[in-house]
Specification:
Strand content: 25-35%
CATH topology of one domain: Dna Ligase, domain 1
Distance between the termini: 29 Å
Radius of gyration: 22 Å
Structural class: alpha/beta
Shape: globular
Order of helices and strands: EEEEEHEEHEEEHEHHEEEHHEEHEHEEHH
Helix content: 25-40%
Largest sheet: 6 strands, mixed
Length: 414
Protein backbone atom coordinates (compact mmCIF):
# COMPACT_ATOMS: atom_id res chain seq x y z
CA UNK A 1 0.00 0.00 0.00
CA UNK A 2 1.27 3.46 -0.86
CA UNK A 3 2.24 5.72 2.01
CA UNK A 4 -0.12 8.64 2.30
CA UNK A 5 -0.57 11.70 4.44
CA UNK A 6 -3.64 13.54 5.61
CA UNK A 7 -3.39 17.32 5.26
CA UNK A 8 -5.97 19.68 6.74
CA UNK A 9 -6.41 23.35 5.85
CA UNK A 10 -8.37 25.49 8.33
CA UNK A 11 -9.52 28.88 7.05
CA UNK A 12 -10.87 30.97 9.93
CA UNK A 13 -12.78 33.74 8.18
CA UNK A 14 -15.01 36.50 9.47
CA UNK A 15 -18.13 34.92 7.95
CA UNK A 16 -17.42 31.18 7.81
CA UNK A 17 -14.96 28.64 9.17
CA UNK A 18 -13.90 26.32 6.33
CA UNK A 19 -12.04 23.06 6.87
CA UNK A 20 -10.69 21.01 3.97
CA UNK A 21 -9.24 17.51 4.47
CA UNK A 22 -7.02 16.14 1.72
CA UNK A 23 -5.02 12.97 1.18
CA UNK A 24 -1.73 12.84 -0.70
CA UNK A 25 0.31 9.72 -1.44
CA UNK A 26 3.94 9.14 -2.38
CA UNK A 27 3.15 8.63 -6.07
CA UNK A 28 1.17 11.83 -6.63
CA UNK A 29 1.69 15.51 -5.99
CA UNK A 30 -2.02 16.26 -6.50
CA UNK A 31 -4.03 16.45 -3.25
CA UNK A 32 -7.30 14.51 -3.21
CA UNK A 33 -10.11 16.21 -1.29
CA UNK A 34 -11.80 13.70 1.03
CA UNK A 35 -13.68 15.96 3.46
CA UNK A 36 -15.07 19.48 3.81
CA UNK A 37 -16.57 21.23 6.84
CA UNK A 38 -18.18 24.67 6.96
CA UNK A 39 -19.71 26.53 9.88
CA UNK A 40 -20.76 30.10 10.62
CA UNK A 41 -17.88 32.10 12.14
CA UNK A 42 -19.34 33.24 15.45
CA UNK A 43 -16.84 34.95 17.74
CA UNK A 44 -14.84 36.61 14.96
CA UNK A 45 -14.85 40.05 13.35
CA UNK A 46 -12.58 41.06 10.46
CA UNK A 47 -10.40 38.03 11.11
CA UNK A 48 -9.92 38.77 14.83
CA UNK A 49 -11.21 36.83 17.83
CA UNK A 50 -13.81 38.83 19.77
CA UNK A 51 -15.38 35.98 21.80
CA UNK A 52 -13.17 33.03 22.72
CA UNK A 53 -15.93 30.57 23.65
CA UNK A 54 -17.98 31.23 20.52
CA UNK A 55 -14.84 31.05 18.37
CA UNK A 56 -13.83 27.66 19.83
CA UNK A 57 -17.36 26.33 19.24
CA UNK A 58 -17.39 27.53 15.60
CA UNK A 59 -14.01 25.97 14.87
CA UNK A 60 -15.02 22.70 16.54
CA UNK A 61 -18.23 22.44 14.50
CA UNK A 62 -16.36 22.95 11.23
CA UNK A 63 -13.77 20.33 12.20
CA UNK A 64 -16.43 17.83 13.26
CA UNK A 65 -18.22 18.10 9.93
CA UNK A 66 -14.96 17.60 8.02
CA UNK A 67 -14.12 14.56 10.15
CA UNK A 68 -17.56 13.06 9.57
CA UNK A 69 -17.35 13.43 5.78
CA UNK A 70 -13.71 12.29 5.47
CA UNK A 71 -13.85 9.49 8.01
CA UNK A 72 -10.45 10.64 9.25
CA UNK A 73 -9.67 12.05 12.72
CA UNK A 74 -8.11 15.51 12.59
CA UNK A 75 -5.09 15.97 14.86
CA UNK A 76 -3.46 19.05 13.37
CA UNK A 77 -4.07 21.73 10.74
CA UNK A 78 -2.37 24.23 8.50
CA UNK A 79 -3.99 27.38 9.82
CA UNK A 80 -4.74 30.51 7.83
CA UNK A 81 -4.59 33.87 9.57
CA UNK A 82 -6.04 37.14 8.31
CA UNK A 83 -7.03 40.55 9.58
CA UNK A 84 -5.85 44.08 8.95
CA UNK A 85 -3.26 43.73 11.77
CA UNK A 86 -1.01 41.85 9.33
CA UNK A 87 1.81 43.89 7.87
CA UNK A 88 4.54 43.07 5.35
CA UNK A 89 7.93 44.63 4.63
CA UNK A 90 10.83 43.81 2.31
CA UNK A 91 14.25 43.38 3.88
CA UNK A 92 17.83 42.44 2.93
CA UNK A 93 20.24 40.10 4.67
CA UNK A 94 23.97 39.84 3.86
CA UNK A 95 26.44 37.23 5.14
CA UNK A 96 29.89 35.94 4.28
CA UNK A 97 29.93 32.40 2.87
CA UNK A 98 31.27 30.14 5.59
CA UNK A 99 32.66 27.26 3.52
CA UNK A 100 36.46 27.65 3.06
CA UNK A 101 36.19 26.85 -0.65
CA UNK A 102 33.29 29.28 -1.08
CA UNK A 103 30.56 26.73 -1.86
CA UNK A 104 27.16 27.86 -0.58
CA UNK A 105 25.38 25.49 1.79
CA UNK A 106 21.94 25.53 3.39
CA UNK A 107 23.45 26.95 6.59
CA UNK A 108 24.43 30.06 4.60
CA UNK A 109 20.81 30.48 3.47
CA UNK A 110 19.68 30.14 7.10
CA UNK A 111 22.12 32.82 8.24
CA UNK A 112 21.16 35.20 5.44
CA UNK A 113 17.48 34.89 6.37
CA UNK A 114 18.31 35.44 10.03
CA UNK A 115 20.20 38.58 9.00
CA UNK A 116 17.17 39.76 6.99
CA UNK A 117 14.89 39.55 10.02
CA UNK A 118 17.34 41.42 12.26
CA UNK A 119 15.35 44.64 12.11
CA UNK A 120 13.46 46.87 14.48
CA UNK A 121 10.17 45.03 14.97
CA UNK A 122 7.90 46.36 17.75
CA UNK A 123 7.73 44.01 20.74
CA UNK A 124 3.97 43.49 20.23
CA UNK A 125 4.49 42.09 16.72
CA UNK A 126 5.56 38.60 15.67
CA UNK A 127 7.10 37.32 12.44
CA UNK A 128 4.68 34.96 10.72
CA UNK A 129 6.47 34.26 7.47
CA UNK A 130 9.83 34.99 5.84
CA UNK A 131 9.82 34.43 2.09
CA UNK A 132 13.03 34.76 0.08
CA UNK A 133 12.37 36.72 -3.11
CA UNK A 134 15.81 36.25 -4.67
CA UNK A 135 19.48 35.81 -3.78
CA UNK A 136 22.67 37.48 -4.95
CA UNK A 137 26.07 35.83 -4.92
CA UNK A 138 28.77 38.50 -5.13
CA UNK A 139 27.72 40.49 -8.24
CA UNK A 140 25.35 37.88 -9.70
CA UNK A 141 21.72 38.74 -8.95
CA UNK A 142 18.32 37.14 -9.48
CA UNK A 143 19.27 33.69 -8.14
CA UNK A 144 16.42 31.51 -6.87
CA UNK A 145 18.34 28.74 -5.05
CA UNK A 146 22.06 29.36 -4.54
CA UNK A 147 23.04 26.09 -2.79
CA UNK A 148 26.04 24.57 -4.59
CA UNK A 149 27.18 27.85 -6.15
CA UNK A 150 30.48 29.45 -5.12
CA UNK A 151 31.29 32.96 -4.00
CA UNK A 152 32.34 35.17 -1.12
CA UNK A 153 29.16 37.04 -0.16
CA UNK A 154 25.51 35.88 -0.09
CA UNK A 155 22.69 38.41 -0.05
CA UNK A 156 18.95 37.73 0.17
CA UNK A 157 15.96 39.93 -0.59
CA UNK A 158 13.19 38.70 1.69
CA UNK A 159 9.50 39.45 2.18
CA UNK A 160 8.60 39.40 5.88
CA UNK A 161 5.01 39.20 7.13
CA UNK A 162 4.30 40.15 10.74
CA UNK A 163 1.17 40.28 12.86
CA UNK A 164 0.12 41.59 16.24
CA UNK A 165 1.27 39.03 18.81
CA UNK A 166 -1.91 39.22 20.96
CA UNK A 167 -4.12 38.59 17.90
CA UNK A 168 -1.97 35.62 16.88
CA UNK A 169 -2.02 34.16 20.40
CA UNK A 170 -5.82 34.53 20.65
CA UNK A 171 -6.32 32.60 17.42
CA UNK A 172 -3.78 29.94 18.45
CA UNK A 173 -5.59 29.52 21.77
CA UNK A 174 -8.97 29.02 20.10
CA UNK A 175 -7.62 26.41 17.68
CA UNK A 176 -5.64 24.48 20.30
CA UNK A 177 -8.60 24.54 22.70
CA UNK A 178 -10.65 22.98 19.92
CA UNK A 179 -8.53 19.87 20.48
CA UNK A 180 -6.03 20.09 17.60
CA UNK A 181 -2.44 21.17 17.04
CA UNK A 182 -1.19 23.82 14.61
CA UNK A 183 1.15 22.42 11.99
CA UNK A 184 1.95 25.83 10.54
CA UNK A 185 0.35 29.26 10.34
CA UNK A 186 0.14 30.99 6.95
CA UNK A 187 -1.24 34.46 6.09
CA UNK A 188 -4.53 34.10 4.22
CA UNK A 189 -3.51 36.20 1.23
CA UNK A 190 -0.48 33.97 0.61
CA UNK A 191 -2.59 30.83 0.93
CA UNK A 192 -5.22 32.17 -1.48
CA UNK A 193 -2.52 32.67 -4.10
CA UNK A 194 -1.38 29.07 -3.76
CA UNK A 195 -4.99 27.94 -4.15
CA UNK A 196 -5.71 29.65 -7.48
CA UNK A 197 -2.44 30.50 -9.29
CA UNK A 198 -0.27 28.51 -11.67
CA UNK A 199 3.53 28.74 -11.71
CA UNK A 200 3.34 30.46 -15.10
CA UNK A 201 1.10 33.22 -13.74
CA UNK A 202 3.50 33.79 -10.84
CA UNK A 203 6.44 33.99 -13.25
CA UNK A 204 4.75 36.47 -15.61
CA UNK A 205 3.47 38.81 -12.91
CA UNK A 206 0.02 38.63 -11.34
CA UNK A 207 -1.98 39.99 -8.42
CA UNK A 208 -4.44 38.00 -6.34
CA UNK A 209 -7.29 40.00 -4.80
CA UNK A 210 -8.99 37.92 -2.10
CA UNK A 211 -12.25 39.70 -1.24
CA UNK A 212 -13.44 38.24 2.03
CA UNK A 213 -16.25 39.13 4.39
CA UNK A 214 -14.28 41.53 6.59
CA UNK A 215 -11.07 42.32 4.69
CA UNK A 216 -9.50 42.08 1.24
CA UNK A 217 -6.08 40.52 0.80
CA UNK A 218 -3.75 41.70 -1.97
CA UNK A 219 -0.75 39.63 -3.10
CA UNK A 220 1.50 40.54 -6.03
CA UNK A 221 3.76 37.91 -7.61
CA UNK A 222 6.58 38.30 -10.11
CA UNK A 223 9.36 35.99 -11.34
CA UNK A 224 7.89 33.11 -9.37
CA UNK A 225 7.83 34.65 -5.92
CA UNK A 226 5.96 37.16 -3.81
CA UNK A 227 6.66 40.83 -4.44
CA UNK A 228 4.12 42.61 -2.22
CA UNK A 229 1.29 41.75 0.20
CA UNK A 230 -1.14 43.78 2.25
CA UNK A 231 -4.63 43.71 3.74
CA UNK A 232 -7.34 46.22 2.76
CA UNK A 233 -9.74 46.79 5.69
CA UNK A 234 -12.89 46.46 3.56
CA UNK A 235 -14.89 43.46 2.38
CA UNK A 236 -18.32 42.02 1.72
CA UNK A 237 -19.51 42.96 5.20
CA UNK A 238 -19.11 46.65 4.33
CA UNK A 239 -21.27 46.17 1.23
CA UNK A 240 -24.02 44.60 3.34
CA UNK A 241 -23.84 47.42 5.90
CA UNK A 242 -24.08 50.03 3.14
CA UNK A 243 -27.19 48.32 1.75
CA UNK A 244 -28.85 48.21 5.18
CA UNK A 245 -28.20 51.92 5.74
CA UNK A 246 -28.99 53.07 2.21
CA UNK A 247 -32.21 51.08 1.82
CA UNK A 248 -33.25 51.33 5.48
CA UNK A 249 -33.65 47.60 5.96
CA UNK A 250 -32.41 44.95 8.38
CA UNK A 251 -28.95 43.43 8.05
CA UNK A 252 -30.42 40.00 7.26
CA UNK A 253 -32.56 41.46 4.46
CA UNK A 254 -29.56 43.43 3.17
CA UNK A 255 -27.46 40.26 2.95
CA UNK A 256 -30.19 38.37 1.11
CA UNK A 257 -30.89 41.04 -1.48
CA UNK A 258 -27.15 41.47 -2.02
CA UNK A 259 -26.87 37.79 -2.87
CA UNK A 260 -30.06 37.56 -4.93
CA UNK A 261 -30.49 40.94 -6.65
CA UNK A 262 -27.29 43.00 -6.53
CA UNK A 263 -24.66 43.55 -9.20
CA UNK A 264 -21.85 46.02 -9.89
CA UNK A 265 -23.45 47.61 -12.97
CA UNK A 266 -26.45 49.83 -12.08
CA UNK A 267 -26.80 50.81 -15.74
CA UNK A 268 -27.96 47.26 -16.49
CA UNK A 269 -31.06 47.70 -14.28
CA UNK A 270 -34.36 49.35 -15.21
CA UNK A 271 -34.97 52.32 -12.91
CA UNK A 272 -38.59 51.14 -12.42
CA UNK A 273 -37.65 47.68 -11.12
CA UNK A 274 -38.52 47.29 -7.43
CA UNK A 275 -37.76 44.65 -4.76
CA UNK A 276 -40.53 43.77 -2.30
CA UNK A 277 -38.74 43.24 1.02
CA UNK A 278 -41.86 41.68 2.59
CA UNK A 279 -41.11 38.58 0.49
CA UNK A 280 -37.63 38.39 2.01
CA UNK A 281 -37.90 39.58 5.59
CA UNK A 282 -40.61 39.63 8.26
CA UNK A 283 -39.10 42.84 9.63
CA UNK A 284 -39.22 44.89 6.41
CA UNK A 285 -42.46 45.62 4.60
CA UNK A 286 -41.44 48.30 2.09
CA UNK A 287 -40.20 48.19 -1.48
CA UNK A 288 -36.78 49.35 -2.63
CA UNK A 289 -35.33 50.25 -6.01
CA UNK A 290 -33.07 47.56 -7.46
CA UNK A 291 -31.15 50.22 -9.38
CA UNK A 292 -30.43 52.07 -6.11
CA UNK A 293 -29.26 48.78 -4.60
CA UNK A 294 -26.80 48.27 -7.46
CA UNK A 295 -25.56 51.87 -7.21
CA UNK A 296 -24.72 51.27 -3.54
CA UNK A 297 -22.93 48.01 -4.33
CA UNK A 298 -21.05 49.56 -7.26
CA UNK A 299 -19.77 52.43 -5.12
CA UNK A 300 -18.37 50.18 -2.38
CA UNK A 301 -16.76 47.63 -4.72
CA UNK A 302 -15.21 50.47 -6.69
CA UNK A 303 -13.72 51.82 -3.45
CA UNK A 304 -12.26 48.37 -2.66
CA UNK A 305 -10.74 48.14 -6.15
CA UNK A 306 -9.30 51.66 -5.88
CA UNK A 307 -7.59 50.61 -2.63
CA UNK A 308 -6.24 47.56 -4.46
CA UNK A 309 -4.89 49.91 -7.13
CA UNK A 310 -3.11 51.91 -4.41
CA UNK A 311 -1.34 48.70 -3.36
CA UNK A 312 -0.22 48.13 -6.95
CA UNK A 313 1.10 51.69 -7.08
CA UNK A 314 3.10 51.07 -3.88
CA UNK A 315 4.98 48.20 -5.51
CA UNK A 316 5.20 50.01 -8.88
CA UNK A 317 3.08 47.44 -10.72
CA UNK A 318 -0.03 49.50 -11.50
CA UNK A 319 -1.10 48.47 -15.01
CA UNK A 320 2.10 46.39 -15.42
CA UNK A 321 1.13 42.79 -14.63
CA UNK A 322 1.05 40.61 -17.78
CA UNK A 323 -1.05 37.88 -16.12
CA UNK A 324 -3.42 40.51 -14.77
CA UNK A 325 -5.64 40.32 -11.70
CA UNK A 326 -7.16 37.17 -10.21
CA UNK A 327 -10.14 37.98 -7.99
CA UNK A 328 -11.19 35.33 -5.48
CA UNK A 329 -12.79 34.98 -2.06
CA UNK A 330 -16.34 34.60 -0.80
CA UNK A 331 -17.37 38.11 -1.91
CA UNK A 332 -15.98 37.77 -5.44
CA UNK A 333 -19.04 36.16 -7.02
CA UNK A 334 -21.20 39.24 -7.46
CA UNK A 335 -22.27 39.80 -11.12
CA UNK A 336 -20.42 42.38 -13.26
CA UNK A 337 -17.49 42.61 -10.82
CA UNK A 338 -15.05 41.64 -13.57
CA UNK A 339 -16.15 44.51 -15.81
CA UNK A 340 -15.80 46.99 -12.95
CA UNK A 341 -12.35 45.63 -12.07
CA UNK A 342 -11.11 45.85 -15.67
CA UNK A 343 -12.34 49.43 -15.90
CA UNK A 344 -10.78 50.43 -12.57
CA UNK A 345 -7.47 48.54 -12.68
CA UNK A 346 -6.81 48.68 -16.45
CA UNK A 347 -5.62 45.06 -16.49
CA UNK A 348 -6.93 41.65 -17.56
CA UNK A 349 -9.18 40.28 -14.79
CA UNK A 350 -10.67 36.87 -14.09
CA UNK A 351 -12.29 35.05 -11.20
CA UNK A 352 -9.91 32.65 -9.45
CA UNK A 353 -11.31 29.21 -8.76
CA UNK A 354 -9.36 26.51 -6.89
CA UNK A 355 -7.26 24.39 -9.24
CA UNK A 356 -5.28 21.13 -9.43
CA UNK A 357 -7.25 19.00 -6.99
CA UNK A 358 -8.88 15.58 -7.13
CA UNK A 359 -11.59 13.90 -5.08
CA UNK A 360 -14.62 15.88 -3.85
CA UNK A 361 -13.83 18.84 -6.08
CA UNK A 362 -17.52 19.70 -6.56
CA UNK A 363 -17.74 20.62 -2.87
CA UNK A 364 -14.92 23.17 -3.12
CA UNK A 365 -15.43 24.56 -6.64
CA UNK A 366 -16.03 28.02 -5.26
CA UNK A 367 -13.80 31.13 -4.85
CA UNK A 368 -14.65 31.09 -1.15
CA UNK A 369 -12.53 27.95 -0.71
CA UNK A 370 -9.38 29.42 -2.25
CA UNK A 371 -7.66 30.04 1.09
CA UNK A 372 -8.53 26.68 2.67
CA UNK A 373 -7.31 24.85 -0.43
CA UNK A 374 -4.21 27.02 -0.60
CA UNK A 375 -3.41 25.87 2.93
CA UNK A 376 -3.67 22.27 1.72
CA UNK A 377 -1.29 23.11 -1.15
CA UNK A 378 1.11 24.63 1.38
CA UNK A 379 1.02 21.43 3.43
CA UNK A 380 1.34 19.12 0.43
CA UNK A 381 4.44 21.01 -0.74
CA UNK A 382 6.34 19.58 2.23
CA UNK A 383 4.49 16.25 2.41
CA UNK A 384 5.71 15.16 -1.01
CA UNK A 385 9.33 15.76 -0.02
CA UNK A 386 9.04 13.74 3.19
CA UNK A 387 6.19 11.26 3.53
CA UNK A 388 7.37 10.41 7.06
CA UNK A 389 6.95 14.00 8.24
CA UNK A 390 5.28 13.96 11.65
CA UNK A 391 1.94 15.69 11.98
CA UNK A 392 0.97 17.29 15.26
CA UNK A 393 3.93 19.47 16.19
CA UNK A 394 3.27 23.22 15.91
CA UNK A 395 5.58 24.79 13.34
CA UNK A 396 5.73 28.27 14.82
CA UNK A 397 9.31 28.70 16.02
CA UNK A 398 12.22 30.16 14.07
CA UNK A 399 13.99 26.90 13.22
CA UNK A 400 10.83 25.39 11.78
CA UNK A 401 10.13 28.56 9.87
CA UNK A 402 13.55 28.10 8.27
CA UNK A 403 12.51 24.54 7.38
CA UNK A 404 9.41 25.88 5.67
CA UNK A 405 11.56 28.35 3.75
CA UNK A 406 13.71 25.51 2.43
CA UNK A 407 10.62 23.73 1.19
CA UNK A 408 9.44 26.96 -0.45
CA UNK A 409 12.79 27.41 -2.19
CA UNK A 410 12.95 23.87 -3.48
CA UNK A 411 9.41 24.24 -4.82
CA UNK A 412 10.68 27.07 -7.03
CA UNK A 413 13.21 24.82 -8.72
CA UNK A 414 12.27 23.54 -12.20
Amino acid sequence: MNAHRIIVGLDVGSSEIRTVVASIDENSKTPSIIGVGTHEASGFRKGLVIDVEEAINSISKSLEEAERISGEPIHSVFLGIGGHHLNAINSKGVVAISNPVGEIQEDDIDRSLEAAQAMNIPPNRKILRIIPQSFSVDDQTGIKYPVGMTGIRLEVDAHIVTGLAPCIRNLEKCVINSGIDIEDMIPNNLAAGDGVLSKRQKELGVAVVDIGHGTTGVSVYEEGTILHTNMVPLGGENVTNDIAIGLKCSIDAAERIKLEYANCNPNSIDSKEMIDLSLISKMDMHQVSRKTLCEIVHARYQEILQMVQEELIKCERDGMLPAGIIITGGSAKIPHLLELARETLKLPVQIGFPRSFEGLVEKVDDPGYSTALGLVVWGSRFATSDMNFKIGVPNLDWQKTIGSVKGWLKNLMP
